[in-house]
């Protein structure tokens, strides 16, 4: 994360035109999601001040990029366009995780803002989504489902926080229903995404296949969280099984990436 931050600073300093051009793409918001994911992990490790710092950084990045991305929005959208939703919901996950760890009701309330904002963003993107991407996409089409999966995770985290904090207890049942609805919506994408992989195999490695790994893993993560707050053991059982599938997909994509580098390593430089 530090190295990528330094590289981003270097690009801003020495390649300003490229920096501004790339800041208009939804893919630029991956930095927000990555920062929030790292912050969530640090919070789970008990490093709360580091997690709070990353929440602030991620929120500032999100706010700084959002207008530029929306102002230059291109239609029809592709899988990478759903990063608008992923980045927004990642802020909700981090804020809710911190709120649960610190027993801070105000952070759970803060988490409600990106949680509720991310769902209209999803409607906005999916309404402009090019359905042909399900057949032609090189991997990032999976984010169409993954964006809802991280939304379900965010909703489950907020629900978990509302359950333990008296201030939000009145909203707990409504949040449980919302968690179930968003999780079910995310799951409705899964058979479609799996079927199109078999209907239109794309076996050649593409860097966008890492955008397949994220949603596959997120289906397990959101199912663990949703199954726990809903008290539904079959959802948790699915999450346990799907975790191994996600790990297998990660291994396949990693192996394909490494295999692609072999010819490059063997290539003899031209005199």
Outline the structure in words.
- The chain contains eleven helices and no strands.
- By secondary structure, the chain is mainly alpha-helical.
- The longest helix has 34 residues.
Radius of gyration: 19 Å
DSSP strand (E) fraction?
A: under 5%
Shape: globular
Main β-sheet description: none
Number of helices: 11
Q: Short description, anyone?
A:
The protein has helices at residues 2-14, 16-22, 30-44, 48-71, 83-102, 105-126, 133-136, 143-164, 172-199, 210-230, 233-266. With 271 residues, it is mainly alpha-helical. 40% of the residues are buried.
Please give the structural blueprint:
Elements: H1 2-14, H2 16-22, H3 30-44, H4 48-71, H5 83-102, H6 105-126, H7 133-136, H8 143-164, H9 172-199, H10 210-230, H11 233-266
